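Lecture 7 notes: from sequence to structure.
We start with the chain below.
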Amino acid sequence: MRRRGPKYWLWINRRLPLYTHEEVLGDGVQIEVQARVSLEGITQVFIGVYDTEGWVVCEEFHDRQGAEHGCLALKWGAQRAREIVIDSRKFVAPHKAQLSLSTVITDESVRALRRMEINERDALRLKSSDAWSEYMAAKAAMLELMRSTKVDAKEWAEHKERLKQAIDRRVCVQRAYLR
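Predicted structure tokens for the same chain:
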């Protein structure tokens, strides 16, 4: 059962015929879209997004340009509802960030210079810069691979792992840097 919010009660008019689209997403979130043509000939759309227990996540209504057909208004409203659902969800990382990663710098002379005594903040700044450079290089390599017409599965897996490790390294360094 849905628990309607105030915007629904402001929008509802039982005398006007409605087109309705209802959808339940895989995680139980409910989407309801209603479209109608007002007495002035303007297509109006109501969009309701409700959680798994029927509580309001978001309700909004819109006046569309001119006398748009109900099916098109429903299609637009369903797309808008999906955008609302995506915007309301928290970001969940696809994998857990690793805490022990190998060094980015492979050149021994550069590593020796970096080992010189510097304060902790400067060391974190250097690590952050190195992690960013590695991420950008891994991203560029993956984009180049994605643009290729034919890709070897082993090469794809290697680039994917490199990008994943670069992201993990960047996250770990940023966590340490922001403390």
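Points to note: Residues 108-178 form one domain. The radius of gyration is 26 Å.
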